[in-house]
Design brief:
This protein is α/β, with parallel strands linked by helices. The protein has helices spanning about 65-70, 85-105, 120-135, 150-155, 175, 180-200, 210-215, 220-230, 245-250, 265-270; strands at about 110-115, 140-145, 165-170, 205-210, 235-240, 255-260. The protein folds into 2 domains: about 1-35 and about 50-105, no CATH class; about 110-270, Rossmann fold (3-Layer(aba) Sandwich). The chain has 10 helices and 6 strands. Strands 3-2-4-5-1-6 form a 6-stranded parallel sheet, sandwiched between helices. Residues about 1-50 have low confidence and may be disordered.
């Protein structure tokens, strides 16, 4: 029996007037909704104003998404005890995944936001930097707050030469600089560099490190940043990191990840910042 058009199951139950259970019993109201109709608008609906620690509403699921969730990831989470029954479940899951990948074939430059109180925001962006460089593409990193020291990643990534442009244009944290006017001047200078890279079609990825903090401190305006993001060529990605990303930025993002602080050695144990971990 061919896979169900709705969820890709290879063994839709029932016969005659019944359809696959992802749609329920068949009716005379016309054919079930095509999974592709869920994908006509490639952008996720705008997020509601975000509050830290509060989950954002989940995007709508297509029948294929629901089927994938129902079939599960396998392993010991699957209910089947017999090897052949488990194999059939995973074969169905493979077919569903194949259809999901086939339908989602759009390519575009993404706005990725890494925010939250937990550690790992810059680290996540640096993973994208390394991955992009590994594909032979060019990258630019502009750091808005950091700059009073040279982190290990800047030393290591210098091996990529002109493929990576790295600008640490801050002078440290506010309690170190103690000069708002100077901080604002440096942030604006960093933003000028950022706009030049955002408009440069040769840079596949631009990382704006701690730009969210600059927004939070009032050194940049949200409209200023949103206008800069519009300078990008269609396939240029941009990653924005830092705590306190404003709701207006989250609403425009394609991907938002909030790092949640659960435990930190500096806070609980008094462990100092260590090379290779913090810088």
């Amino acid at each position: 029996m061919p896979p169900c058009n709705g969820c890709g199951r290879l063994d839709p139950p029932g016969s005659g007037g019944s359809c696959c259970r992802c749609h329920g019993p068949a009716t005379d109201q016309g054919p079930p909704e095509s999974p592709s109709s869920h994908l006509q608008n490639p952008r996720v609906p705008p997020l509601q104003p975000h509050q830290p620690g509060v989950e954002a509403p989940a995007p709508p699921e297509s029948p294929l998404d629901r089927a994938a969730a129902e079939l599960g990831p396998g392993g010991d989470l699957a209910p089947e005890k017999e090897a052949e029954a488990y194999r059939r479940r995973m074969a169905r899951r493979q077919e569903v995944q194949r259809q999901r990948v086939e339908e989602r074939n759009m390519e575009k430059g993404l706005v990725l936001v890494f925010t939250g109180d937990g550690k790992g925001k810059t680290t996540a962006a640096l993973g994208l930097v390394l991955r992009t460089l590994g594909h032979g593409e060019k990258v630019a990193v502009v750091q808005f707050i950091k700059g009073g020291w040279q982190p290990g990643e800047a030393k290591a990534l210098a091996l990529f030469g002109d493929s990576l442009h790295w600008h640490a244009l801050g002078e440290g944290f506010t309690w170190e600089t103690q000069d708002r006017d100077r901080d604002r001047e440096l942030v604006q200078r960093a933003w000028e560099h950022s706009c030049a890279y955002l408009a440069d079609g040769q840079r596949k990825l631009v990382v704006l490190d701690e730009v969210n903090v600059a927004l939070k401190l009032g050194y940049l305006e949200l409209d200023q940043v949103l206008q800069g993001l519009r300078l990008r060529p269609p396939l240029t990605h941009v990653a924005l990191t830092g705590r306190g990303a404003p709701a207006g930025l989250l609403e425009q993002a394609d991907l938002v990840t909030e790092m949640r602080l659960v435990r930190h050695p500096f806070r609980e144990q008094g462990v100092k910042a260590q090379a290779g971990i913090e810088f």
